[in-house]
Amino acid sequence: METPSQRLQPNHAVGGGLPRERRAAFTPLHFPHRPALSHKGDFFAAKRHECRAPFACVMLLVAIALCATNLRAGVYPNTPTRLWPNGIIPVEYDNDPSINLNQVAVVVQAMNAWMAAANVSFVSRNNEPDYLFIRQGTNGPSYPVAAGYQAGQGKHTLNLNFWGNDNDDYLNCKLVFGMAHEVGHALGLSHTHQSTNRNLFFNVRTNLVTPGNVGNYNIDSNSRVWPRNLADIDSIMSYPLCTFSICTNCSTNLQNCAPILLQEPYATDWATNLTCPSGQCPPPLQCVGQRNHLSVWDKAVMSYLYPQSNWRFAEAGSVEATQTGKFHYPAKTFTNGVTLTPAAGTLYLEPATYGNSGGVHTKHVTLRATRVGSAVIRQ
Fold this sequence. Notes:
The chain has 6 helices and 19 strands. By secondary structure, it is an alpha/beta fold.
């Protein structure tokens, strides 16, 4: 949640753009020949490529290694039931004359940022029982209910509190992405510092939080973080370190006043960007708690939560009993992942070694790594 005073406090981010994964397409008509050597972290090796019959060009796998660009973790719901069905979010604005077109334009820009990243659509409500209800409110901007979708709740309220009230505010990246933070909550994301493993990355000091706001620092026990051992400091869902501090001079006295401090190596990595400058536009600007763009990982994890219909996922180390190929319930083997992936679809592989994958695979499937690291496929 953002406070009204944060409209004047610059927040910032870095990155931008969807991850640049390398692809290897399995197709019955063509297979891209590539040398079996490392090239910019992207490696592909195959024993042979052959066409055994008309329109049946096949591939016998020995090993494949795919590597994505460096991505960091997002905090998301622990069950897909907290995601909006089919990625469709019905929207209704309160019939309140105090909500002006400037505010609506800021909200729309924030929604557009997420729609460009993932398979989500914000549509006008047409009597749907569960919907996003946008009102002026007096607290926020905020999405005060639990992150994500709650079946049977009816109104899922997003408060504006006069955010983006002035002419041309939709051109102000800080206001747009401040609202994108709240829309991220509506779609299911929690704050970075509320992950179940947050103590690996953050030193959260609730004794320095103003009364009534400690709840914004509680661990979200109904969340997952993925990848498991990383934190996205650049995320639009990260807080500025001084948010809700009891100190008036927090930005100049972080050690004694900031409710959040970074653990190493993040403290060193971000040492020159622990607070944000007074202006953040045009993006990207790199500082903790930025509000000027969606991070690379913001976009990636949202696209995995709300994927294209022909995307599937595999994770060799998954502990889930169910294997549907969806992000929450990935396939545990490469072979099962290919089986679950529709023809001409995309199989995302969590970096790991996938054994016992030998054999002939003729289905046209695009392979991508979900994040930095190698996904090795062996016979």
